[in-house]
Amino acid sequence: MTDSARRGPSPTRWLRRALGISAHRATPQGPDGHRTPGRPRDRTSASPPPEPLPPLRVTTVDALEEGSALVVDGAVNGTGEDIAVFRSGGHFYALNDICTHRYASLSDGWIAGDRVECPVHQACFSLRTGEALCPPATVPEPTHRVEVRGDEVWLWPGHPADRPGQEPDGPPGRNAEPGPGGGAPGRSAGTSL
Hints:
By secondary structure, this protein is mainly β. Helix content is 9%, strand content 22%. The chain is built from three helices and ten strands; from the N terminus they run ααββαββββββββ. The chain has helices at 3-7, 11-19, 74-77; strands at residues 56-60, 68-72, 83-88, 91-96, 110-112, 115-117, 124-126, 145-149, 152-156, 191-192. The strands form three sheets. A four-stranded antiparallel β-sheet has the order 2-3-4-10. A hairpin with a 2-residue loop joins strand 5 and strand 6.
């Protein structure tokens, strides 16, 4: 008899057999049959949704007080991640709600001018660009387009906010009602009243 026959299977091998577990690691698969990584998703390389998402009416201008924020659930907005809509200085902004440093809700943070401070470790983000302005955060927050149509605030989930000095592009200009005073459709990333 060989040594392995006398000793029997290793405890690990025996446990795997008893539980019906393969010796090879299985790659988890999502509901669509594609491989899903075994580690958290890298938020910096998140791909946009495959199809443009429709706009959502999230509130009225008067319902969202100056210096406050509201959260649009990820299941409702279609991106899978909560989005915070902020009102500051008469402007409306939208960022993903979760801090890129330690997963705290930015909607619970302090809003001052065109920045929001995380309530946990005081990382600051630009409401206009999503840029991480001070440590400990170093990864920017994704921005989303916001429009004011009359007295309603509309969110375009998955559509990046216009950068200062950049003209809006793509779908948000389509079928939009004129902004206050006639003129172009409502602007994003700082739509003022």
